[in-house]
Design a protein that fits this description.
heterotrimer, A mainly alpha, B mainly alpha, C alpha/beta, A: MetI-like fold, 2 domains, 0% strand, C: alpha/beta, Rossmann fold, 8 helices, globular
Chain lengths: 367, 289, 256
């Protein structure tokens, strides 16, 4: 074990020991078992044991212990968090970290894509995020009007599916998708037109860059005044927000091909459209995907914020602002979860598509 | 050189102004024509153009109306006045800067953890990216309300929104920068048997500076956006965001546009300031000018 | 006459004033010749090649390629050009890179396939057609780029230091292959290099150039036999020509 691993192991054992001493008479059997396991694991610090029985330092063992302890803590949450339970919760987390740390050390020399490392580890981290959120909110008795625990939000997601779907449809399927398609599409076309003239490119690029940095979201009230309360005004905000990042990135992308590659096409006496389709557009793809990914989150933000300035009685932004007023924070967080899920899913889908299309780019190359 | 760079930009700006004026007439004309009809006035084209640019609450104000409004609310008002745009800009600017500083610090710390520890890299990096798919700007109002409820009010809640938005570009850029040293230079440092800490201080940190400044330009602009949106729910008290909101409540389009234009100017000034800081730092580090 | 330059001049405007990249160049290159342009950096050898290819426009004098102005020669696809770097498009496989000029010229897909196969075989890249450029070594990439220049069967091949970035062994090997290819196809080749042995080994005619202003100082016709194994480079004849090239280069530097 490395220095860091030994430190984590020792800290976990100490926490477990504290829990045993402090809560020997009060803790539930499950918690006692978890604390006992953690303490026993502390013995792995002895090099003799690790040498004689290498199986005890496998990451799988840490994973199992951390999960047992975490479950025991979650089961005992309703009774309030006392010092001993906190000790076990922290020990559980330390063992989780140990498991990841060891997996990483084993994987350090591996090449290629590893599903456990690339997907399992982040999900595991997410689990601990939710675990401590739950433990803190319930254990410390934080009022649900401030921060509801994840379990309550999860229950909301299940019981209010119909409302959430309707809001999702109004905000995402109508406003975001329409605005995103129009904004990115028109910016793409404009960029190709502008790219034909050196003069225009030199004018549009700095201005586009500047406008991309502006708080464009401020046009939301104006768009609501111009296009009314329904989804069209939200789509208009999304169009304005996504247009400039897309235009600027496409413009930079279209001039990304090297001078030598352009000369090459010149020696073939290639026409404008041939150069565009065979050289400029493929070379611009990494830039275009960059904009598409940036815009996927911008679009969601634009549509939701625009709904604060006036909306029919449906939509993610509408629900958030009204439920905040009613102190129904679990519903608000359920809406946020839906929005975050939609955002992450779009981002993930775009990333996969990018990987497929720009497989040749140095950041994705596999020999 | 100057002509090559400036001329195209000025041309496009002029074109935008012309189009803006065109739309001003076009969008404000229906209401004006209605007025003419009601009062049965004879009107010519020049009258129409003149009158559409002089509405109190136009659908789209003319650029000169917005500029006049800005002039009126900056130069002609006392800075302490609740109607002074300078006062509102200062409110927004202070929370922007606080959020930016906190975001830069958080982003740098995260980047250092990520680069120095592989478990951190694999666990944190996907969540840092996922964190930005949460439409934080959209829930900013709620966060402000909740933070107010637990006694946090004033500058800090708004600044926290800016922090959340600005740490992301910093973290991503810093990770890239800290990993940018040539492998050959890292090997060279290894031959000196230098410690991890020495490698970090002498090689990784200096190589990351250009990346840091590029990220800071994005981060400061986005901090401003965060501060403005963070002001929306505070009951329209103060700040550029509050001006936007009160403008939209009372249909004061000129006020909305002047707040927007001020925000744009502020964004430009902030990015320029970061740019200058970047140039000074890089010149001190021996970069060619 | 494939190329005929007459009092060719090319000046660049830069911030530091006018640079005479080419000054009064006179040169004739006949069909089937292998001509090397050699000289130190800044002597205009690459610029001259780019003028022939219509990638630069001369500011004075005249130049004809196949009896036409360069632009018409380019539009008629009169030459293949090999750059200093392979310049292969990284999103296309080797085969699709070689077929790029054929696609642009609108050949039928059957014809494209047939020619690509032939070219891959000609430069010895059999079995690598489906690979992407970045999966190949530098030498193989440069061979693919030569195959691409040969693919549309132009009679003139312009090569700008094609082997400059490769190591000596690979370079020797490619030099040998290039000579065989030239003999097999009978093309006219214009070859820019700054290596004396390379120029002497490959060429029937060596053009020595010197910088500031870029001009021709010597034109040497090589009388080495057509059949040139690599060890011809140790023969007295070879060394004698190399010596003359070296003197020409030194002369160009004398008035610095």
């Amino acid at each position: 074990m490395t220095g860091l691993q030994k430190l984590l192991n020792a800290a976990a054992a100490l926490c477990g020991f504290y829990a045993l001493v402090d809560g020997f008479t009060t803790l539930s059997p499950a918690l006692l078992l978890a604390a006992g396991l953690v303490v026993v694991c502390g013995m792995r610090l002895s090099p003799a044991l690790a040498a004689a029985l290498p199986v005890v330092i496998r990451p799988q063992l840490d994973l199992v212990i951390s999960l047992i302890a975490a479950c025991a803590v979650l089961a005992a949450l309703q009774d309030g968090m006392v010092g001993a339970v906190w000790g076990i919760a922290i020990a559980a987390w330390l063992h989780g970290w140990l498991a990841v740390e060891k997996t990483m050390a084993d994987d350090a020399d591996a090449t290629g894509f590893n599903w456990v490392v690339s997907l399992g580890v982040p999900l595991f981290f997410g689990f601990w995020l939710l675990f401590f959120w739950e433990a803190l909110t319930i254990g410390l008795g934080i009022p649900t009007v401030l921060l509801p625990p994840p379990s309550m939000i999860g229950a909301r997601l299940v019981t209010s599916t119909a409302i959430l779907m309707a809001d999702f449809q109004q905000t995402f399927l109508k406003a975001v998708l329409a605005g995103y398609a129009i904004g990115c599409g028109s910016a793409f076309v404009v960029a190709i037109l502008v790219d034909r003239s050196n003069f225009l490119r030199r004018g549009f690029l700095p201005i586009g860059n500047f406008i991309s940095a502006l708080p464009i979201i401020g046009v939301a009230p104006i768009m609501v005044m111009w296009f009314g309360f329904d989804w069209q005004s939200k789509a208009a905000v999304v169009v304005v927000m996504t247009f400039f990042p897309m235009m600027v990135n496409t413009l930079s992308g279209l001039s990304a091909a090297s001078a030598m590659e352009r000369d090459l096409l010149d020696t073939y006496a290639a026409g404008y459209w041939q150069t565009l389709f065979k050289l400029q557009l493929p070379a611009a793809m990494p830039f275009i995907f960059n904009a598409l990914k940036i815009n996927s989150t911008l679009a969601l933000i634009g549509a939701i914020v625009a709904e604060f300035f006036g909306t029919p009685i449906v939509g993610i932004g509408f629900r958030i602002s009204t439920e905040v007023g009613r102190m129904n924070l679990d519903m608000v967080w359920a809406e946020i979860a839906v929005a975050a899920l939609a955002g992450s899913a779009s981002y993930g889908a775009l990333s996969l598509l990018e990987r497929r299309i720009t497989f040749w780019h140095p950041s994705y190359r596999t020999k | 050189m100057l002509r090559q760079k400036l001329l195209p930009v000025l041309t496009i700006i002029a074109a935008i102004a012309v189009i803006w004026y065109g739309f001003t007439v076009y969008l404000n004309a229906p209401w004006q024509l209605d007025q003419y009809e009601k009062s049965a006035t004879e009107w010519s084209m020049t009258d129409l153009v003149r009158d559409t640019m002089a509405h109190d609450r136009p659908v789209l104000p003319a650029p000169h109306q917005v500029v006049a409004e800005i002039w009126k609310t900056t130069v002609k008002k006392k800075v302490t006045s609740k109607r002074s745009l300078i006062y509102h800009s200062w409110i927004t600017l202070s929370s922007t800067l606080l959020g930016f500083v906190m975001g830069t610090f958080t982003g740098m710390m995260l980047a250092i953890f990520i680069v120095e520890n592989r478990a951190m890299d694999k666990s944190l990096m996907p969540w840092i990216i996922a964190s930005q798919t949460i439409p934080i700007l959209a829930i900013a109002p709620m966060i402000i309300v909740v933070l107010n409820a637990i006694g946090l009010s004033g500058l800090l809640p708004k600044a926290l929104i800016s922090t959340y938005l600005s740490f992301f570009p910093i973290a991503v850029g810093m990770v890239k920068g800290l990993r940018s040293p040539d492998p050959m230079l890292i090997d060279l440092m290894r031959t000196y048997n230098c410690s991890r800490w020495q490698l970090f201080i002498t090689l990784r940190l200096p190589s990351s500076i250009p990346y840091l400044f590029t990220s800071m330009k994005i981060a400061i602009a986005i901090s401003l956006v965060g501060a403005i949106v963070g002001e929306l729910p505070t009951g329209a008290v103060a700040g550029l965001g509050a001006r936007l909101l009160s403008g939209s409540y009372y249909g004061q389009t000129i006020q909305i546009w002047s707040a927007l234009l001020t925000a744009a100017t502020l964004a430009a000034l902030l990015v320029i300031a970061v740019n200058i800081a970047a140039q000074i730092t890089q010149r001190m580090m021996g970069a060619p000018k | 006459m494939v190329i005929k330059a007459d009092k060719l001049n090319l000046d660049f405007e830069t911030n530091d004033g006018v640079v005479h990249a080419l000054r009064d160049l006179d040169l004739e290159i006949g069909a089937g010749e292998f001509v090397s342009l050699i000289g130190p950096s800044g002597c205009g050898k690459t610029t001259f090649l780019r003028v022939i290819a219509d990638l630069e426009t001369p500011t004075g004098g005249s130049i004809a390629v196949n009896g036409q102005p360069p632009e018409q020669a380019r539009l008629a696809r009169a030459y293949g050009y090999v750059f200093q770097a392979p310049a292969l498009l990284s999103w296309r496989t080797i085969a699709r890179n070689i077929s790029l000029p054929l696609e642009i010229m609108g050949l039928s897909s059957g014809e494209q396939q047939e020619r690509v196969e032939r070219m891959i075989n000609l430069v010895g890249l059999d079995g690598f057609g489906g690979k992407f450029p970045w999966q190949l070594s530098g030498g193989m990439q440069q061979r693919a780029s030569i195959a691409r220049a040969l693919a549309f069967d132009a009679d003139l091949l312009l090569m700008d230091e094609p082997f400059g970035a490769l190591d000596e062994i690979v370079r020797d090997h490619l030099n040998e292959q290039l000579l065989q290819l030239w003999k097999k196809t009978g093309k006219t080749i214009c070859f820019v290099t700054h290596s004396i042995p390379e120029a002497v080994y490959l060429s029937t005619k060596i053009v020595v150039m010197s910088p500031r202003p870029g001009r021709i100082t010597d034109v040497i016709t090589s009388d080495l036999p057509d059949d040139r194994p690599l060890d011809i480079r140790e023969t007295p004849k070879f060394l004698e020509i190399a010596q003359r090239v070296r003197e020409g280069l030194r002369e160009g530097h004398a008035d610095d």
